[in-house]
Amino acid sequence: MTEVTFALRRLQSLNQKVGGGKKNEEPEVDTSKMSPYEQMQYKIACDMKRTRENILELDNVGASASITRKTELSNSVRKDMNNMKKDCAALQRLSVKEKKTDEYTQLVSHVKKTDQLYRARFGGKSVDESGPSGSNATSINAMEMNDIGTASTPMVSLRDDEEFVQFFQQTQKNDVTIDEALNRIALGVTRLHENATAIKSELAIQNTLLDETEAKLDKVHSNLKGVNKKLKDTIKQVDKDRLCLYVFCCIILLGIAGGIYFVVFKNK
Question: Considering the entire predicted model, what is its pTM?
Protein backbone atom coordinates (compact mmCIF):
# COMPACT_ATOMS: atom_id res chain seq x y z
CA MET A 1 0.00 0.00 0.00
CA THR A 2 1.49 3.39 -0.99
CA GLU A 3 1.65 6.32 1.39
CA VAL A 4 -0.88 8.35 -0.60
CA THR A 5 -3.33 5.43 -0.64
CA PHE A 6 -2.94 5.14 3.12
CA ALA A 7 -3.59 8.87 3.52
CA LEU A 8 -6.65 8.72 1.28
CA ARG A 9 -8.09 5.83 3.28
CA ARG A 10 -7.34 7.72 6.47
CA LEU A 11 -9.25 10.75 5.16
CA GLN A 12 -12.11 8.55 3.94
CA SER A 13 -12.34 6.92 7.37
CA LEU A 14 -12.28 10.35 8.99
CA ASN A 15 -15.01 11.50 6.61
CA GLN A 16 -17.21 8.51 7.51
CA LYS A 17 -16.80 9.23 11.23
CA VAL A 18 -18.25 12.71 10.78
CA GLY A 19 -21.14 11.47 8.63
CA GLY A 20 -19.64 11.64 5.14
CA GLY A 21 -20.66 9.59 2.11
CA LYS A 22 -19.37 6.37 0.59
CA LYS A 23 -15.70 5.78 -0.09
CA ASN A 24 -15.84 6.34 -3.80
CA GLU A 25 -17.72 9.62 -3.40
CA GLU A 26 -16.40 13.04 -2.39
CA PRO A 27 -19.23 14.73 -0.46
CA GLU A 28 -18.83 17.95 1.49
CA VAL A 29 -17.43 17.22 4.93
CA ASP A 30 -18.93 18.80 8.04
CA THR A 31 -15.70 19.90 9.73
CA SER A 32 -17.64 21.22 12.73
CA LYS A 33 -17.86 17.64 13.99
CA MET A 34 -14.07 17.16 13.81
CA SER A 35 -11.53 17.83 16.51
CA PRO A 36 -9.20 20.85 15.98
CA TYR A 37 -6.43 18.49 14.86
CA GLU A 38 -8.69 16.70 12.37
CA GLN A 39 -9.93 20.03 10.98
CA MET A 40 -6.38 21.22 10.34
CA GLN A 41 -5.40 17.80 8.97
CA TYR A 42 -8.32 17.86 6.55
CA LYS A 43 -7.45 21.40 5.39
CA ILE A 44 -3.83 20.40 4.72
CA ALA A 45 -4.95 17.29 2.82
CA CYS A 46 -7.27 19.38 0.61
CA ASP A 47 -4.47 21.88 -0.11
CA MET A 48 -2.09 19.00 -0.89
CA LYS A 49 -4.56 17.38 -3.30
CA ARG A 50 -5.20 20.68 -5.08
CA THR A 51 -1.45 21.37 -5.29
CA ARG A 52 -0.71 17.99 -6.88
CA GLU A 53 -3.58 18.38 -9.33
CA ASN A 54 -2.29 21.80 -10.40
CA ILE A 55 1.28 20.51 -10.74
CA LEU A 56 0.04 17.59 -12.84
CA GLU A 57 -1.97 19.97 -15.04
CA LEU A 58 1.12 22.13 -15.56
CA ASP A 59 3.10 19.01 -16.46
CA ASN A 60 0.44 17.90 -18.96
CA VAL A 61 -0.40 21.17 -20.73
CA GLY A 62 3.20 22.13 -21.48
CA ALA A 63 3.34 24.95 -24.00
CA SER A 64 -0.28 24.51 -25.11
CA ALA A 65 -1.80 26.46 -22.21
CA SER A 66 -2.02 30.23 -22.12
CA ILE A 67 0.34 32.30 -20.01
CA THR A 68 -2.60 33.47 -17.91
CA ARG A 69 -3.62 29.90 -17.08
CA LYS A 70 -0.04 28.94 -16.23
CA THR A 71 0.23 31.99 -13.99
CA GLU A 72 -3.00 31.08 -12.18
CA LEU A 73 -1.82 27.51 -11.61
CA SER A 74 1.62 28.64 -10.45
CA ASN A 75 0.24 31.19 -8.00
CA SER A 76 -2.26 28.64 -6.67
CA VAL A 77 0.52 26.08 -6.11
CA ARG A 78 2.73 28.62 -4.30
CA LYS A 79 -0.17 29.78 -2.14
CA ASP A 80 -1.16 26.23 -1.16
CA MET A 81 2.43 25.26 -0.40
CA ASN A 82 2.87 28.28 1.88
CA ASN A 83 -0.45 27.53 3.59
CA MET A 84 0.56 23.90 4.14
CA LYS A 85 3.84 24.97 5.74
CA LYS A 86 2.08 27.38 8.11
CA ASP A 87 -0.66 24.87 8.93
CA CYS A 88 1.89 22.11 9.63
CA ALA A 89 3.51 24.33 12.26
CA ALA A 90 0.15 24.84 13.95
CA LEU A 91 -0.73 21.16 13.50
CA GLN A 92 2.41 20.08 15.35
CA ARG A 93 1.19 21.74 18.53
CA LEU A 94 -2.26 20.17 18.12
CA SER A 95 -0.73 16.72 17.52
CA VAL A 96 1.10 16.92 20.84
CA LYS A 97 -2.04 18.14 22.58
CA GLU A 98 -4.25 15.38 21.10
CA LYS A 99 -1.49 12.72 21.20
CA LYS A 100 -1.44 12.16 17.45
CA THR A 101 2.25 12.61 16.72
CA ASP A 102 2.36 9.46 14.57
CA GLU A 103 -0.38 10.75 12.29
CA TYR A 104 1.34 14.13 12.18
CA THR A 105 4.61 12.52 11.11
CA GLN A 106 2.82 10.60 8.36
CA LEU A 107 1.12 13.76 7.10
CA VAL A 108 4.37 15.75 7.13
CA SER A 109 5.96 13.06 4.96
CA HIS A 110 3.25 13.64 2.35
CA VAL A 111 3.78 17.40 2.55
CA LYS A 112 7.52 16.91 2.03
CA LYS A 113 6.81 14.65 -0.95
CA THR A 114 4.56 17.32 -2.43
CA ASP A 115 7.27 19.94 -1.82
CA GLN A 116 9.76 17.70 -3.66
CA LEU A 117 7.39 17.48 -6.61
CA TYR A 118 6.99 21.27 -6.47
CA ARG A 119 10.75 21.84 -6.45
CA ALA A 120 11.23 19.36 -9.30
CA ARG A 121 8.51 21.00 -11.40
CA PHE A 122 9.71 24.57 -10.79
CA GLY A 123 13.43 23.89 -11.11
CA GLY A 124 14.25 23.52 -7.42
CA LYS A 125 12.73 26.83 -6.24
CA SER A 126 11.56 26.78 -2.64
CA VAL A 127 8.26 28.14 -1.47
CA ASP A 128 10.16 30.03 1.25
CA GLU A 129 11.78 32.30 -1.30
CA SER A 130 10.02 35.64 -1.31
CA GLY A 131 9.20 36.75 -4.81
CA PRO A 132 8.27 40.17 -6.15
CA SER A 133 4.95 41.69 -5.19
CA GLY A 134 2.44 43.98 -6.82
CA SER A 135 1.89 44.31 -10.54
CA ASN A 136 5.44 43.17 -11.36
CA ALA A 137 4.79 39.82 -9.68
CA THR A 138 2.13 38.87 -12.19
CA SER A 139 4.29 39.66 -15.19
CA ILE A 140 7.31 37.84 -13.75
CA ASN A 141 5.15 34.81 -12.88
CA ALA A 142 3.83 34.85 -16.42
CA MET A 143 7.39 34.80 -17.77
CA GLU A 144 8.22 31.89 -15.46
CA MET A 145 5.20 29.96 -16.70
CA ASN A 146 6.14 30.61 -20.30
CA ASP A 147 9.64 29.33 -19.62
CA ILE A 148 8.21 26.26 -17.89
CA GLY A 149 6.29 25.28 -21.02
CA THR A 150 9.41 25.41 -23.21
CA ALA A 151 12.10 24.43 -20.70
CA SER A 152 13.98 21.16 -20.69
CA THR A 153 12.61 18.09 -18.93
CA PRO A 154 12.27 18.64 -15.14
CA MET A 155 14.51 16.78 -12.73
CA VAL A 156 11.66 14.42 -11.77
CA SER A 157 8.83 13.61 -14.17
CA LEU A 158 5.45 13.34 -12.49
CA ARG A 159 4.48 10.56 -14.88
CA ASP A 160 7.40 8.49 -13.52
CA ASP A 161 6.25 8.90 -9.92
CA GLU A 162 4.28 5.71 -9.22
CA GLU A 163 2.68 7.11 -6.08
CA PHE A 164 1.57 10.26 -7.89
CA VAL A 165 0.20 8.27 -10.86
CA GLN A 166 -1.80 5.96 -8.57
CA PHE A 167 -3.19 8.96 -6.73
CA PHE A 168 -4.57 10.56 -9.87
CA GLN A 169 -5.71 7.28 -11.39
CA GLN A 170 -7.88 6.81 -8.31
CA THR A 171 -9.09 10.40 -8.63
CA GLN A 172 -9.99 9.80 -12.29
CA LYS A 173 -11.91 6.63 -11.37
CA ASN A 174 -13.83 8.57 -8.74
CA ASP A 175 -14.59 11.29 -11.30
CA VAL A 176 -15.93 8.70 -13.75
CA THR A 177 -18.11 7.15 -11.05
CA ILE A 178 -19.45 10.57 -10.06
CA ASP A 179 -20.13 11.46 -13.72
CA GLU A 180 -22.07 8.22 -14.21
CA ALA A 181 -24.09 8.89 -11.06
CA LEU A 182 -24.83 12.44 -12.22
CA ASN A 183 -25.95 11.13 -15.61
CA ARG A 184 -28.33 8.69 -13.92
CA ILE A 185 -29.67 11.46 -11.72
CA ALA A 186 -30.13 13.74 -14.75
CA LEU A 187 -32.02 10.97 -16.58
CA GLY A 188 -34.24 10.39 -13.56
CA VAL A 189 -34.94 14.11 -13.23
CA THR A 190 -35.84 14.27 -16.93
CA ARG A 191 -38.29 11.40 -16.53
CA LEU A 192 -39.80 12.98 -13.44
CA HIS A 193 -40.21 16.24 -15.34
CA GLU A 194 -41.95 14.43 -18.20
CA ASN A 195 -44.25 12.59 -15.78
CA ALA A 196 -45.03 15.82 -13.93
CA THR A 197 -45.85 17.54 -17.24
CA ALA A 198 -48.16 14.68 -18.27
CA ILE A 199 -49.90 14.71 -14.87
CA LYS A 200 -50.30 18.48 -15.06
CA SER A 201 -51.87 18.19 -18.52
CA GLU A 202 -54.22 15.43 -17.34
CA LEU A 203 -55.25 17.50 -14.32
CA ALA A 204 -55.98 20.47 -16.57
CA ILE A 205 -58.24 18.27 -18.74
CA GLN A 206 -60.01 16.90 -15.66
CA ASN A 207 -60.55 20.42 -14.32
CA THR A 208 -62.07 21.47 -17.65
CA LEU A 209 -64.41 18.47 -17.61
CA LEU A 210 -65.41 19.21 -14.01
CA ASP A 211 -66.17 22.82 -14.89
CA GLU A 212 -68.33 21.70 -17.83
CA THR A 213 -70.13 19.14 -15.65
CA GLU A 214 -70.75 21.74 -12.96
CA ALA A 215 -72.21 24.14 -15.54
CA LYS A 216 -74.52 21.41 -16.84
CA LEU A 217 -75.63 20.54 -13.30
CA ASP A 218 -76.42 24.19 -12.62
CA LYS A 219 -78.52 24.30 -15.80
CA VAL A 220 -80.37 21.08 -14.89
CA HIS A 221 -80.95 22.38 -11.36
CA SER A 222 -82.43 25.57 -12.78
CA ASN A 223 -84.69 23.56 -15.10
CA LEU A 224 -85.79 21.37 -12.20
CA LYS A 225 -86.72 24.45 -10.21
CA GLY A 226 -88.92 25.62 -13.09
CA VAL A 227 -90.55 22.19 -13.45
CA ASN A 228 -91.12 22.00 -9.70
CA LYS A 229 -92.84 25.39 -9.70
CA LYS A 230 -95.06 24.39 -12.61
CA LEU A 231 -95.90 21.12 -10.85
CA LYS A 232 -96.93 22.97 -7.70
CA ASP A 233 -99.16 25.31 -9.73
CA THR A 234 -100.70 22.31 -11.51
CA ILE A 235 -101.41 20.57 -8.21
CA LYS A 236 -103.11 23.68 -6.88
CA GLN A 237 -105.23 23.91 -10.04
CA VAL A 238 -106.11 20.20 -9.83
CA ASP A 239 -107.15 20.62 -6.20
CA LYS A 240 -109.55 23.40 -7.18
CA ASP A 241 -111.03 21.32 -10.04
CA ARG A 242 -111.32 18.31 -7.74
CA LEU A 243 -113.28 20.34 -5.16
CA CYS A 244 -115.72 21.47 -7.84
CA LEU A 245 -116.09 17.87 -9.00
CA TYR A 246 -116.80 16.72 -5.45
CA VAL A 247 -119.52 19.38 -5.04
CA PHE A 248 -121.06 18.45 -8.40
CA CYS A 249 -121.07 14.73 -7.48
CA CYS A 250 -122.70 15.51 -4.13
CA ILE A 251 -125.44 17.50 -5.86
CA ILE A 252 -126.07 14.63 -8.27
CA LEU A 253 -126.19 12.11 -5.42
CA LEU A 254 -128.61 14.30 -3.46
CA GLY A 255 -130.78 14.68 -6.56
CA ILE A 256 -130.87 10.92 -7.12
CA ALA A 257 -131.66 10.31 -3.45
CA GLY A 258 -134.43 12.92 -3.54
CA GLY A 259 -135.90 11.41 -6.69
CA ILE A 260 -135.93 7.93 -5.17
CA TYR A 261 -137.50 9.24 -1.98
CA PHE A 262 -140.18 11.13 -3.95
CA VAL A 263 -141.07 8.08 -6.09
CA VAL A 264 -141.30 5.75 -3.10
CA PHE A 265 -143.55 7.96 -0.99
CA LYS A 266 -145.74 8.90 -4.02
CA ASN A 267 -146.59 5.23 -4.69
CA LYS A 268 -147.66 4.74 -1.08
Answer: 0.39
